[in-house]
Structures are given as C-alpha cells and as structure tokens.
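Appendix B. Chain record.
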Amino acid sequence: MKPIDWRQLYASNRAVIERAGGAPVNLPAGVGVSDGSGAWDERTFTVAGRTRRALVHPPAGVEPHTAVPLVCMLHGCTQDAASFAAATLMNDAADRHGFVAVYPQQERGDNPQVCWNWFLPQHQARGGGEPASIAAIVRELVGTASPWTIDPARVFVAGLSAGGAMAAIMAATHPDLFSAVAVHSGLAYRSATDVRAALAAMAHGSEDPVAQGRAARAAMGDHARAIPSIVVHGTADARVAAVNARQVLQQSMTANALAAPERSDLGFDLARPASTSRGRDDGGHAFTRSEWTDGRGVVMHELIEVDGLGHAWSGGAPGGSYTDPRGPDATEAIWRFFTQATRSPGS
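Structure tokens predicted for this chain:
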C-alpha cells in the first residue's frame, strides 16, 4: 500500500473538520502512514476484553535492536491521534531526536467530544478505566513482543488540554512506567470528580492543589517516586484558565516531596524557582521560563508561560488543530526536558 502523507490527509479534511465543529478524522484500521521521513501504523491493542487503537511512529532509520525512548501523546477534545500528531509536529521531533511516538485514540462512544474522561473517578486510579488502557498500550510497546526496542528508563507522557489532564493522571497512577510528564494547557490530578466541577476547574482552577498533591501521592501506592514535570500554558487561555498551570506544578511538587521523603532537595517552593528567564522566538510570543532544580542541579520542574497564547499547542503546525505556530516551540521544549529525566534502574 502506498503510504499516505498525514499532513495532506489532515489539510484536505480541514474544511470538513471545521464544519463538524472539530470532529476528528479517523484513519481506517491498518492504514500505513508516512510523513515523508518515516512510516507509522495504526495498531490495535486488546485491553480488558476490548479493542483500543493507537498510531505509532518509529523514528526514521531506527534499527530494531537499538534501544530508543518512547513518548506517549494524549490528544485533546475534538481531536484524534492523526490530527494531534499533525498539529504538534511530534513525529518530526521523533525523527530528529530518535524516539518512538505513540498516540492512543479515545473513542467517541466513550466521550461524545472524544475527550479523555479525566474528571471522573473511575478514570483517576490505577488498574481500571482509561489509565489502565493507556498504560497497557505503552507496556505492550515496551515489551519484548514489540517490533522496536524501547528503553524502559526513557518512557514519557505528554498531553494537551483534556490530554494534559490525563497525562497528569498517568504520572500519578503509573510512576513505575513513566519517567517524566508534560502537561500543556491542562489541569492537575483530580481537579474534578464530575462534570460540574470540571467546568469550574477549567474556568477558575481547583480549590486545593496541595490536597491534590496528597491525592496523587496516594494514587502512586507502592510505586511512589518523584516524577519530573514540565508545564506549558498560555496566559490568554479562555478554555482552561492559566491559573491551572501553577496548580499542576504545586500538585506535582507536593506529590514528589511525599513520594520521596528522604530527599530534602524536593521540598520546592512554587514562588521561588531556581531560575527565571524571559524570551521570544523570532516573530513569536514572548514567554517566561521558570525552573526548579534538585540538589544535583537537575531540573525537576519547568514552567513555560506564553504571553498571549490561547488554548493551543505553542509552536504547532500552521492551520493545525488547536495550534499557534508563533511559538515558543512546545514540542522541542518538552523533548529537551525529557532528555534530562531518565529514570535510574530500579527507581
């Protein structure tokens, strides 16, 4: 079968997507897709007796025996795996830096807007619901039956909006699987437990991110460990209020300090980053980058606040689903953060 250009696929369906109010374009099962530099496939996974789908992109030219990192990408509402990959340009990054990218697909039957159900208790714990499905997909790719060799110490999760909120859940419920987390325009773990509370958190933030940090530590159970986190958010986000960015960080910092009480260097003060800098890409948005480092000087938490950015992936593809190409480049920033967050064996 001749590979399909996924950018052209998305562009040719953009008008249809917009008329449908952002409804995603789904690829037929088994279709091979190419971005011109490396093939990717839609794969199916059997999880708890049901079929789950995901698109998988191995880096161009990777040898089967070469151990490479994996980045699990969780799309937002009204997106699907294909449109999210096109929007974030993460496949291009995978080819440049040599990692596998996997995009689990939410099903419309599970949520009418194709959102991950981050706001419902049955999807906020290990061992069931959507976290179990996403983890099963990643574990199968990491496992020996996979056609690629994945380094288990370099497995990461990232997401946008509802996908960002689900990424925070994955970090809390599966710290033994993921070495670091990236939350773009999302919300902290357990910010809500029903639809009404979800809308309130999106508009105003949650009530107590410290309590959510304690809840995240409890969700880690016997697998508790400190999880490095990077947060990207726009100051003009009208869909998920910018206050949620710092609440994600507060929740993560609190959970990490509780997960590793022997490490006094994890008691971070959100108001006192180790460094803060201002920047602007050529022709793009100005932004503030803040970093919190541990006793070894390793960045454990990073916050990128983008001036004037709405509810969109910063530095994404022009015309993509929920993107603002003016930057800064969130994809590159997230990957740079992930490269320093390799998990030590046995940790």
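Further analysis of this model is presented in Appendix C.
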